[in-house]
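FAQ: What does a ligand-bound record look like?

Like this one, built around flavin-adenine dinucleotide:
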Amino acid sequence: MGETSKRHAVIVGGSLGGLLAANMLHRAGWTVSVWERCAEELSGRGAGIVTHRELFDALAQAGITIDDRLGVEVPARVTLDRHGAVIGEQPLRQVLTAWGRLYGLLRAALPDGTYHLAADLVEIHQDGASTTAVFRDGREARGDILVGADGIRSSVRQMVLPEVRPVYAGYVAWRGLVDEARLSPATHAALFERFGFCLPPREQMLGYPVAGAGDTVEPGKRRYNFVWYQPADEGGALKRLMTDDQGRHHPDGIPPFLISAAVIAEMRAHADRVLAPQFAEIVRLTEKPFFQPIYDVESSRLAFGRVVLLGDSAFVARPHCGMGVTKAAGDALALADALRDPGRPVPDALAAYERERVRFGSAIVAHARQLGAYMQAQLRTDEERANAERYRTPDAVMRETAVAPRLAA
Ligand SMILES: Cc1cc2nc3c(=O)[nH]c(=O)nc-3n(C[C@H](O)[C@H](O)[C@H](O)COP(=O)(O)OP(=O)(O)OC[C@H]3O[C@@H](n4cnc5c(N)ncnc54)[C@H](O)[C@@H]3O)c2cc1C
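The answer part, i.e. the structure of the complex:
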């Protein structure tokens, strides 16, 4: 399209999914433009990300060189009981990185002038030959395809598949980061070089080290990242969590700085009551804890003529496999592979992508749902009750959590 004979991809959403798609399509011979709703660069989102071999393979194919600074490597996993004693250990080497680190690498790899901020998609048009995105401020972007990489509440998905919506899983994840230097020597020794777990009834705490400020992995300057799952029924506890100190309810997500001081104080007091003292210390020292309600999203289709869904806009699995970014990378790779041959009609290529990734997305959502069943506020079926029993032991949790599942082909 446009001035060159190259085909052009309009990518809506400039987070990890959008950047992975842009880099991979660019390497497959396409020109790309990325359109992100936020007005400022996204680099500030600070959360830990578990990596898998599949993610490294995909990053290599996107032309991203990985070095030792990607993240912190741990050799093993450990589960602590309520009193801080070790009740299970498993060797498992894994690299833990941070959202901002991956974003920085992928953003730097994009050609200059292709990333556009403050672009809120409001309309899509398509005909037999092209598709056009229209943004709130009147800008338009025309391409051979439009990739919806705009996350769990995707505007693109609402336009092409309005019946698919996020379904609340019945629990939330509290998250936070603490500077390594602030931890007591005892907590540092018990947890820091480990992927750690603690399993209060119907809850799950996990934590791991990640890079510190400026992406440093220098000992003493790293951080510990935690994710603490707790049940919260939709009408009661969740509503209270999502209501700020002014009494305003934020049903689509409360910004971290608006979380009520009373809610945070209760969460910290609960940590002292139910968690191993080492984890309670980490929660106490976390300055800006925030939470995310956990959802499932399952799309029955991903390709709509020249429009296609990718990453969290296509499928959201509960985070227990730690696979969200790896799945987005797999989506991007499959899309670029399907679109590599300039002679293949675009709708055919997108239909092939859909066949492959609907299968994978559905399987990962189902697996993560099994892993998370025991945290749900309400268990609705016998199958959910059976999964809740199966995945509540330290051995099962350490074996399956944040590990890429072997899914039937
Ligand atoms: C508690 C928790 C822990 C997790 N842990 C891990 C982990 O360890 N490992 C892992 O791989 N994954 C993890 N994930 C999942 C991971 O964060 C997501 O899968 C991943 O970030 C998906 O990226 P995305 O680019 O598809 O969507 P998003 O990151 O949500 O990006 C969507 C982008 O689209 C933009 N956008 C939205 N609407 C519009 C619009 N109308 N116009 C233009 N732009 C728009 C948004 O501003 C945003 O920047 C976790 C998730 C949670 C909740």
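Follow-up question: can I read anything off the structure? Yes, for example: Residues 12-18, 35-38, 42, 49-50, 119-121, 149-152, 155, 173, 175, 227, 292, 311-312, 319, 322-326, 328 surround flavin-adenine dinucleotide (CB under 6 Å).
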